[in-house]
Design brief:
It contains 15 helices and 2 strands. The longest helix has about 35 residues. It is mostly helical. Strand 1 and strand 2 form a beta hairpin.
């Protein structure tokens, strides 16, 4: 509990710093979202409406910067991230909530699959080092070095255009009625299979190489020799002793990957015309929709922090030495 409490306090301070930077950064930029909105709608917005917009977005010049900062915290606590200019002044929380499930569902599942497969394959290859299975490492690493947009285009050309196995774009068929029905869920899975497989293939090599190298290092430790001398089965030595310690560095990388899932894979969403947070962030940047950008940056930052907290807890559970060093 002492270890967990210290880590939570550290990440709470980090979250406060990130939120504070998220508040001041847009105000340090030239202009403001209201001025950008008024420039696009010259003559359509009255001065009274412009003042109301500035008050709505916490840019009221009658208030001090400290008061605006306190009001910003009040809005955050109440779950109000402002309104998006590029989506008809819709609440930012609603705009993000409409795109977030697509990103988490696709990139999240693909990341977990690639981590599990890559870690398991790397452990087996490291245990059986010097055999034919080592040939999988350069093959997987080759696909990891291919630019993602190029791999996505090749996947579309082969599996969509040539073979016709999967659709080339969008999250579901045109004219489909979104809902929690088996027909619609199957359509979503069908459309998401090709981009998910592309993500898995592109990231599999890194997980395999990292786990394989750590397994080789761990297998030279004395406690592995002692476990083998006791007559333990090879399966138990691999799973209970070697893999458990070798995968500790993998957890940190996996936590960062989970955190950045919320940010989405922008290139993937552009290549496959897939709706998600990454494409939403690009559209918000292009439209200078500062409230939406601010909300997206905040969500991504908090997701990374939460993922790191969970990784630290898992690390402490798997490795008691981490708890002892913290104490």
């Amino acid at each position: 509990m002492r270890f967990v409490s210290r880590r939570i306090l550290f990440y709470a301070f980090t979250a406060w710093a990130a939120i504070t930077i998220n508040f001041f950064l847009p105000r340090m930029m030239k202009g403001d979202p209201v001025s950008a909105y008024l420039a696009k709608n010259q003559g359509k917005v009255s001065p009274e409406a412009a003042d109301a917009l500035r008050t709505l977005f916490g840019l009221d010049t009658d208030k001090s910067l400290l008061q605006q900062y306190l009001d910003y915290w009040g809005l955050l606590i109440s779950g109000n991230l402002g309104r998006s200019f590029s989506h008809g002044l819709a609440p930012v929380t609603d705009v993000i909530a409409s795109a977030l499930p697509w990103t988490v569902g696709l990139v999240g599942i693909a990341t977990i699959i690639s981590f599990v497969l890559g870690t398991a394959a790397g452990a087996i290859i490291g245990w059986r080092r010097g055999r034919g299975s080592d040939a999988l490492i350069p093959i997987a690493s080759f696909f990891s070095t291919v630019p993602y947009f190029w791999m996505g285009l090749i996947a579309i050309a082969v599996f969509s255009t040539a073979l016709g196995w999967f659709p080339s774009s969008h999250a579901y068929s045109k004219g489909a009625d979104p809902g929690w029905t088996l027909e619609f869920i199957g359509d979503v899975i069908y459309h998401g299979t090709l981009p998910a497989l592309t993500i898995v293939v592109a990231s599999l090599g890194g997980w395999m190489l990292g786990m394989r190298n750590m397994m080789i290092t761990v297998l030279d430790e004395d406690y592995i020799t002692v476990a083998q001398a006791k007559g333990l089965s090879p399966q138990r030595v691999v799973t209970t002793y070697a893999s458990r310690n070798a995968m500790l560095p993998q957890l940190s990388s996996f936590a960062l990957s989970l955190g950045f899932i919320v940010g989405g894979t922008l290139v993937m969403e552009l290549v496959f015309s897939y709706p998600g947070v990454g494409k939403l962030l690009l559209d918000a940047t292009t439209a200078k929709d500062y409230p939406l950008m601010q909300g997206l940056f905040l969500v991504i930052t908090l997701a990374v922090l939460v993922a790191n907290i969970l990784a630290d807890i898992a690390y402490a559970i798997l490795d008691p030495r981490a708890r002892q060093l913290e104490a």
